[in-house]
Each structure stands twice: as C-alpha cells, then as structure tokens.
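Q: What does the assembly look like in three dimensions?
Context provided by user:
Components: two
Sequences:
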Amino acid sequence: MISFAECSARERLALLFDAGSFHEWIAPAERLTSPHLAQLGVPSAFDDGVAIGRARLDGHEVFVAAQEGEFMGGGVGEVHGAKLVGLLQRAVRDEPEAVVLLAESGGVRLHEANAGLIAVSEVMRAVLDVRAAGIPVLVLIGGANGCFGGMGIVARCADFIVMSDVGRLAMSGPEVIEASHGVEEYDSRDRALVWRTSGGKHRWLIGDCDALVEDDVSAFRAAAVAALKASRPVTLESLEAEHALLDARLHMLPIEADGTDQATQLWRELGIEQADRVPDLDVDAVRALRIA
Amino acid sequence: MNWNQLVTRLFGSADGVHAAGDFLAGDVTFEGQPITLVGTTNHAPIGVALALAQARVVLDTIARHPGRPILLLIDTQGQQLRRRDETLGINRAMAHLGMCIDLARRRGHPVVGLVYDQALSGGFITSGLIADACYALPEAEIRVMRIPAMARVTKLSEEVLTALSESNPVFAPGVRNYVAMGGVRALWDGDLPAALRDALVHSPTTDERARDGADRGGRRLAAAVVQRVLDAA
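A: Here is the predicted structure of the complete assembly.
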C-alpha cells in the first residue's frame, strides 16, 4: 500500500497509470515558468506546479494532469491554468477515452491573483467543453492540500470524483472562514471538525463524490479504471435533478447553528445510520452507510 | 450605480425587476426582445441559497423561453464564508449555477454578464466569468484581494505591489486590468442601451479571453501556452 497523499504529483502519475506510459507535454526541461512569480522574486518551478500529458490506464488512452501541492499549494496561476486549458482543448480535438485530473490545489494562486481567477474560469469552461464532447472527466482528490476554491468548483463540474478519506473538497479553507467570522464559526485547528466538514467521508455520505477509497495509490487506480466510462451528459433534466437535490439538502440544516455538529446533523437528516460514529469508522464501513 | 438606476437606464424602467434581499430577478423587454435578468445586489455574499436562486431562474428560462437572452447583474463580495455553506457543499452549488449558465449558452441563449458594482473571486467565477462575455461599468471594482491583503500573503510591501501593478495588471484590482487581461470584454461607458445591443449581437460564443489578453498585452502567456500544449509532440 502506497499513500497517495504522501506522493508527489509526478510519483502519482508514475504509479497510478500503466508503467512507463506517461508522456509529458511541456516537460520541466522546457523551463516554462511563471513570469509573475519571477517579478515578485518568488521561487518558480519548471512546470509551474502542474504536469500534463497522455498516459494509459489499464490499456486505455487518457489525458492526465497532476497538480503539485508542494509548490504554492497547487495554486493556479496564468501558466499553470493555461496548461490545464491546453490539455482539455487537446482532449476535445484528439478524443482520448477520458481525462483524469489529479487535483490538489488551494484554488487561485494569490501571487498572480487576477490572472489565476480568469484562468480557473477558463479551466471550468474547458472541462464543460470536454464533457459536451462526450469524453468523461474524472477528478481524483487525495493530496494533503485538498481541493479548494476555484478548483473545488472545477471538480464539481466533472463527471466523476474519487476521494480518499484524507482528501478534502470544499470552497473556502477553514483558516479563511475563521479569520472572517471567528473561531466559534470554524475552528481551523480542530482537525476532526475540518474533516467532518470537508473530508472524503462527508463528501461520500452526502453524495458529493462518487467513490470513496483508502489513501492508497492502487485504490485510486482501481476506482479510476472503473469510472472510465462514467460520461454523464449535462442536460436540462440532469440539472433539474441536481437542483432538486441541492434544494432539499439546503433545508436540512437550520440557518443558525444550535450547537449540534452540522455535518452529523446533515448525515442524520439524510437517513444515515450511526451518524455519530462516522469519524471512528473505517472507509469500508463508511462506504456501506451511504443511502443510494 | 445601484441596480435600480442601472435597469432604468437600460430598459426605461425598473418595472418587472424585483429584489428579494440580495437577490435580483425579472423579465424586461429590450427593443421588443424579452430578456431574463438575474443577479445580486448589496455586495451579496454568494452562499448555497443565493446560488440556487440564480440557478432556478436560468433553468426556468431554458425550459420556458428557448433562446431568450440572459443578462447577469453582478454585485458580490465573493462566496459566503460560513461553515454551514461549506458543510452543504457550497462548491457544488456554485458549480451547479455555473453549469446552468453554461447549458443556457450551449442551447443558444446569449448570456451577457455585467459587473455594475463589485465582483470578487468565488462570486464572480460562476456568473460573469462563465457567460458568453462579461462587461463592466467603469466605476465597478473587480478583484481577488486588496493590495494590503495581497502584501500579507506574498510577504511583499504594499509599495512594491502598487508599483508592480502599474506595469503588470496581474497584481492589482481594477476593471481596466481585467479588460487588459481579457477577463472583461469591454467597459460600458455612456450609452448603456447601445452597449447592451452590441453585446447581445457581438459577444463570442467560444472562449476568446486568452487571445484577448494576449492582444491587449495584459495576459501575454496564456494563449501561447495553450497553443504549445496543442502542438506538443
């Protein structure tokens, strides 16, 4: 068992896809770096924090991207975002069997804030172009930095999300919410609370991810292989169903917290048994709790 | 400019548009053409409820009025920073709003975004930034974060960042920087109905922002990097 969380982006690419099959586009040797970081005197990376290319997954040709959480928290800058957009546009042109994004990102890279924000919106549109072409987009989330901000939105624009229990998927990080509304609102140092609010088990139980796996590269690989044909067309009917689900969920939590843990309350409202015990249960046990 | 003045200048009257808290919606007629209007006011924080309220209007327009243009009126302080919204999956609700707008575009509804007051990061990315094209009033403000906050994150002085922002639009708030980078297609100055007429006819249906950013010199690399990926052996 190899921890997905502890691997670098490139280790994940090497281990998750068929051995030796990853072929990189704009490899680090080309030294494509962010000019904005250079202008700020901040160290840059020769891949700007994301590796992209093609690979094989159980023999199937896929296009892949892996964000490196160790570099600026996986933040999306101009070059980083453009590499993702290029990959997605190339997928529309070349029609691989799927696109697999190994997402690990705090969202927009604040050092190049404006360019990063536009870039994330370009990635979002490009993901939806790939889906409209009938090519499934799979997102794998299990890095230590989680998948936040604009990338948390991008992930939910995909066809299929695989998470580990240590993975996190959300919009704003706990530190940002705590800074804005105080420690009573969100104690960012309360790890159990953070994972109940954004972690893989929570996202699985409420249906925000499609597969929950152990923090193990081979488990991620197996889940990705199983999802290769997961294309889900975006239609008025599918969006109406999504709307109904989100609207019903919205009414399950009171606007003012009454001291009960909100995540636990939501699980209970959804009819999940042993809601109080979820944090102590292992992945297999939690996987069995979800209401179909 | 407040939404009431804006709508009156665009459509002759604000009848047909209603505000419920921070939420704006309505049906207006522009030169004989019915238009759906949806958006926010009061620098709204966009939480799950407000994302869904906007998505509802877009879905209803797709279902009941095929092809009808949609005008998104943007005034937001960004995403709602509450734990309840995070628990409920605010990123999913915002993605849903963005996907509803995207579906409207793909079904031939012209979708035009207009930042009439303030636009920030999370509240902007699934509205104006996913329209066919986004425009702004000259006095509007668009940003990810203010320079003092950016100075804290980057550990650089405000003076350095302010100086850099003179030469590089990436670093500083401002609608003109967003125009230079291609994120905003143009500013609406003076004759607002003429600007809307032009936007409804000439907004691109493909994503031209990286190319605009390169042509305007505000975002020089994005389009070239995309092309390099397309051409890579």
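Follow-up: Residues 137 and 159 of chain A are 5 Å apart (CA to CA).
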